Amino acid sequence: MTLLTRTDLGFAYLQLTGSAWQEPVRYTLEERLAALAENNCVSMGMSIEELETFLAEYSADKLRGLLSEYAIRLHELEVHFGWNAGLEESAAALETETRFFDLAEIAGIPSVKTCAVYPPGVEMPPTEVLAERFGAMCDRAAARGVNVSLEAMAVMPGFTYQVASDIIAAADRPNAGLLVDMWHLFRDPTGTGSIDQLTGAQIAGVEFGDAPRTPSPDVMNEVLSGRMLPGEGDFDITGLLRKLDAKGVDVTPAAEVLSADLRALPLSENIARTAAAVRASLEKARG
């Protein structure tokens, strides 16, 4: 089985909250699980903040019971920043890392999503240094039975997809891979070419989304509220999917279409429209 032949579908965390980033979550966990099950989806992401709040109020047994009832799994815990500082430079990095791994283990979440951010004016260490730090973190994750996915964010262009891909290739850890978020990948000039050096096993996930060829003047608003359903924009999704399929990428397709228009819909309709668009993209790529 490869990406193009998969029939299962998951959703990234933010698309299901009914809220924009850093706004209060509108839907309960059970409402999200029920809507996913209604639309034959299999998984969702979870933020560390919401997971901590849930476990403080309820229990891991309550969480497992809900997941079992709706036959939905939590596929990732997001987002771990700070590993790139190096533990020798930041005790807070180790504390945050341990918190992520502890909660992933407690909740049975197989993967932690990570990224690094270097705003303009902040110097980024050499790639070989980042690869060493990333690899060490992956080793600590492996000791806990946790996988690590690495994402780049096009709105913070210092840590590009090329850098992220170089880190994955240099670290070469069996429990680590690159997360291909289509919006960030296509908005990054280094994006689509950066994955050529990676094997199929080094792709940890694929998140669907689309946008016009020309970025919005307010790119931050676009990434948080102006993404489009796959097939509605200009990204070469078919070409990307065929490239990934040729590598033997075999992951559950996921959606991350952060859109004010979709957020305004009832949650089940948001999921239904997105799932239909993702599945149509996969069908088109199969040709």
Describe the model:
- The chain is an alpha/beta fold.
- The chain has a single domain, classed as TIM Barrel (Alpha-Beta Barrel), CATH 3.20.20.
- It is built from 12 helices and 8 strands.
Question: Helical element count?
Answer: 12
**Radius of gyration, Cα only, in angstroms?**
18 Å
Instruction: Give the total of beta strands.
Output: 8
Low-confidence parts, pLDDT < 50 over ≥5 residues? none
Subunit organisation of the chains: single chain
Key attributes of the depicted protein:
287 residues; alpha/beta; 8 strands; 8-stranded parallel beta barrel; globular; 13% strand; TIM Barrel
The gist of it:
The protein has 287 residues and is α/β, with parallel strands linked by helices.
Task: List strands and helices in order, with pairings.
Layout: E1 10-11, H1 29-38, E2 43-47, H2 48-57, H3 60-70, E3 73-80, H4 91-107, E4 111-114, H5 127-143, E5 147-150, H6 161-171, E6 176-181, H7 182-187, H8 191-194, E7 203-208, H9 219-225, H10 237-246, E8 254-255, H11 260-263, H12 267-286
Parallel strand pairs: 1-2, 1-8, 2-3, 3-4, 4-5, 5-6, 6-7, 7-8
Helix pairs in contact: 5-6, 10-12
